[in-house]
Design a protein that fits this description.
Strand order of the largest sheet: 1-4-5-6-10-9-8-7
Order of helices and strands: HHEEEEHEEHEEEEHEHHEE
Radius of gyration: 19 Å
Oligomer: single chain
Largest sheet: 8 strands, antiparallel
Length: 301
């Protein structure tokens, strides 16, 4: 029994509107490639409730109402959206509800053990300034590729780190550079879990209007993720284990992106998907679309 592709007409129509700004990256037939990518993804999607292995490091206890797309198929979707997924990609997670216009991109970065003692000293305003400066640098590359430049608007949620669970959460919004103040803003909601040898990032992409409603979703998926025994943060052995060259603040300020080669174009929502806006930070993101919905009886082949 195959999974329904009932949302595909909406998804591909929206995609055509959005990919027009990615002229340097566009496929010969972006709608056809997206449809093929979705078909391939739906064939291997794992529905919750289920335990999904994440590399050889961790697992996520995927709740009911969510679908996990493995690495290869997730990478194909991201490429169809105009992104450049890297080797650290674990997969993507979609909600299956009728109104789920969002997705999560999961990555594991083998950075080494990240010391978290700088969390007590960081200053949110300074971190924000660093991110804005870094975005201006990446705008040079965007401009050279014919991709619209973007600007960071500000925090949606200031960085918060829990030393007991070793979880980090932060979020900010972005929009087209020099756009009117009331222009649509895209949001990348970033969550991290630290481990013995690196970190898992689970970044939810949505729009500004939906983020407050979706914060509990992002946090619940983070809470459902855990490192395997022997790979947890508490398993660190100072005598044998590699320590990362950067601290926790780098996962906010973007230093890790340069050190680890994780440059990513995070293209977020705009009204009715008619526009793409982005922000270069750690992780991946793109245009979230309605897909992987619950099957209706009439849609079952």
């Amino acid at each position: 029994m195959k999974k329904s592709l009932s949302p595909i007409a909406h998804a591909t129509a929206s995609l055509i509107l959005c990919l027009c700004v990615f002229t340097a990256w566009a496929q010969a037939d972006p709608a056809a490639e997206m449809k093929a990518a979705l078909t391939a993804a739906q064939a291997v999607a794992k529905d919750g409730p289920a335990d999904v292995k994440l590399s050889e490091q961790a697992a996520i206890h995927l709740p009911e109402g969510f679908a996990f797309i493995p690495k290869n198929e997730a990478a194909r979707i991201l490429r169809a959206m105009g992104n450049r997924p890297g080797p650290d990609l674990l997969g993507m997670i979609f909600g299956k509800g009728a109104d789920d216009n969002w997705f999560v991109v999961a990555n594991y970065v083998k950075s080494g053990y990240i010391k978290d003692d700088d969390a007590k000293d960081w200053k949110a305003d300074e971190l924000l300034s660093n991110i804005k400066a870094g975005t201006e640098e990446t705008n040079k590359e965007r401009k050279s590729r014919g991709i619209p430049e973007v600007e960071v608007v500000g925090w949606i949620e200031r960085p918060a780190y829990d030393p007991a669970t070793h979880r980090l959460v932060w979020s900010m919004s972005s929009r087209d550079k020099n756009a009117p103040v009331d222009s649509p803003q895209g949001v990348n909601y970033n969550t991290y879990l630290l481990g013995r040898e690196g970190f898992i990032s689970m970044n939810l992409v949505t729009d500004l209007a939906a983020i407050e409603k979706l914060k509990p979703t992002a946090r619940s998926l983070l809470a459902a993720t855990e490192f395997d025994k022997g790979k947890t943060y508490a398993d660190f052995n100072s005598a044998t284990d590699h320590v990362a060259e950067f601290g926790l603040a780098a996962l906010i300020g973007g230093v890790a992106a340069k050190k680890l080669g994780l440059f990513a174009l995070i293209a977020a929502f705009a009204v009715k998907f008619a526009k793409v806006i982005g922000l270069a930070v750690i992780g991946f993101g793109a245009l979230a679309m309605k897909m992987f919905k619950k099957k209706k009886p009439e849609d079952t082949a």
